[in-house]
Amino acid sequence: MDVMTKIPVREQDAKVRATNFEEVCLGYNQEEAMCEASRCINCKNAQCVKGCPVAIDIPAFIHEVKEGNIEKAYQIISEASALPAVCGRVCPQESQCEGKCIRGIKGDPISIGKLERFVADWARENGIKPQGATEKKGKKVAVIGSGPAGLTCAGDLAKAGYDVTIFEALHEAGGVLVYGIPEFRLPKEAVVAKEIENVKSLGVKIETNVVIGKSVTIDELMEKEGFSAVFIGSGAGLPKFMGIPGENSNGVFSANEYLTRSNLMKAFNPASPTPIMRGKKVAVVGGGNVAMDAARTALRLGAEVHIVYRRSEEELPARVEEVHHAKEEGIIFDLLTNPTEIIADEKGWVTGMKCIKMELGEPDESGRRRPVEVPGSEFVMELDTVIMSLGTSPNPLISSTTEGLETNKWKCIIADEENGKTTKEGVYAGGDAVTGAATVILAMGAGKAAAKGIDEYLSK
Amino acid sequence: MYKILKKQELTTNIYLMDVEAPRVAERCLPGQFVIVRMDKDAARIPLTICDYDRKAGTITIVFQTVGAGTTMMAELSEGDCFHDFVGPLGCPSELVKEDLESLKKKNILFVAGGVGTAPVYPQVKWLHENGVAADVIMGSKTKDLLILEKEMEAVAGNLYVTTDDGSYGRSGMVTQVIKDLVAEGKKYDVCIAIGPMIMMKFVCLLTKELEIPTIVSLNPIMVDGTGMCGACRVTVGGKVKFACVDGPEFDGHQVNFDEAMRRQTIYRTEEGRAMLALQEGDTHHGGCGNCN
């Protein structure tokens, strides 16, 4: 084998997978994983670890894979990560661990994500569980939200011996892993539910159907229900719309709504009682991972799908792999294009979208070149469905009902990056509620930091 | 799991249930709503809170069987459980936040249409318990569809019942009763109208003319009910609002009812098909173009 080249991972054929909701990537088998692991040069000063928001001891676990000690590899990973089967699938490895891999300078970086996935899947198939706490601390901690930040924080606190209860607003635990990321990228029953079972096996309790700020407040949890500390990992919040004419027409949805219907409510399955619009021609406005997920869902529901994004391909915020997969499956990218109006028929149903062509001007404050309109380039795209994937703004439910919890000018909860500490004593926060919409792994990193912060606070 | 302690068929196709939900009962206020799922595969159905008992930890819901989901829900019996029951969602009614003394000086009119009587009831009851007597107009298509008349009578100042077909009480639409009452010399400082969207629209058109500020409670399509999906967006005063977190109550004179009614029909075809499949049961063998 060529040590410069990574072992390719098996995938469902693009034409086939464009018509089903089965997982796209099939993952490594043990032979492939051991072979890929043998390419790792086991750097002393491993850069990959520095690129990992939860600092998994990557060279150590890869070494165990190379030796065929998969269970040992799993225990190494699970010391740092509560959700390895998830991270192996959805982390943007190219800008994190793999982006820093020394092998990547001259050849392909080690496929760290695929190896992590293999180890986690192997552990699940062989019934290996993460190791729980040996001593109890006798203190209760409440975790708000059962997404990646909450699950990680809860898992770490349980391992440290705390009595942890997660409160989830929806009827099912998992947060964005359940309502946001589609089945074909992250299987719900086979992967997410099992990872949550693992967290529960550490002693974490999950109470669903509790909307903090409505069903009960943080102050009540601390004063009446005996929680000594609280972690807020409530996620991103309210979907943004463009504010252009016609946006409330029938057939315009937020990506959050569209994906929640398909993922959480299983509307992709015709047997689900929750309906979803099965458009013939769909435009997804936006260029992030959520936009790719919405586009690839619409494609699988039978539509011709266009991604409409106002900047160029280089600025697409989505992971490279998602863009690549979307293109393979036949998603059409209308780049440097910005919608200006949604057109509807007399009954209010979408029939088209007026757009204008853009070109890139001077860099803006984000460092990306600012898109500017090309005069006279307006045109109309005929379509029946528009999905707005423009990000979210924070949900004020918790900040407005918690005395002393401060937010910044974007209405995100203010929390210390090091330890998750907020402006309210005993209350910690992390993930999208603090940073605005980001990634699963960054939320996990924040959950991990907050667990450490809470442990220090309660050990005082 | 959320146990059904009491079930009653109020009238044809309208059911009342007392459900054990201590967290919701502890904090809910008039004007708020819940979302329920009858089993682990069911759709999320938003329902307004009709009554609550903080001591017993129960919530009273009232629903009409309009689609497949509510029809199956009506099959549940006392002792059965809802799989999910979340709330209280949305903002409480403005009334409960107002100063009681100033409330007592106000002439308040409630207009309840059909199953909209259920969410009106806890507001009138709350006012009654706080020493405020409000007038209530209750309207339904026909006598057999009237609900909660006795309960409402016990808490309302004056109760005016009307049926569209004249089979009971006054005859005609609720808007006619408003006109009649005002013609009789009644003066109202505020009107709260809850019922079918079309009723609320016409009440608002009238009360705008009569210069009576009017609050309505909207029931658009929702998924999560916590602000996450934006399915429930409505235009109020030219601005987009999410009914689940900004409402469900809004200034009725500012609501774009035509848009709201149009948006309620988004899934009508799918809902119709689901109902058909449920009605036909085992005899439904496709042919509708959507089933296998």
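Chain A has a mean pLDDT of 94.
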